[in-house]
Automatic annotation (TrEMBL):
Residues 35-53 have a biased composition (Basic and acidic residues). The chain crosses the membrane at residues 6-24. This is Uncharacterized protein. Keywords: Membrane, Transmembrane, Transmembrane helix. Residues 31-53 are annotated as: Disordered. It comes from Zobellia uliginosa. It comes from the Bacteria.
Amino acid sequence: MHNNTIYIVLGVVAVIYIVISMNNRRVGKDRKSRRFMDGYERKADKKRDEDRK
């Protein structure tokens, strides 16, 4: 048992790393796919554009 302890610890660390990595990848993909900010302009920019017309 004592000879395999390091492999068990490394395996648990690897599993934790993989789970965190997959979660971060999913969150990043969700963030990139957001569409609610498409075409967003600040109110000041909109007002300037309307004044130019």
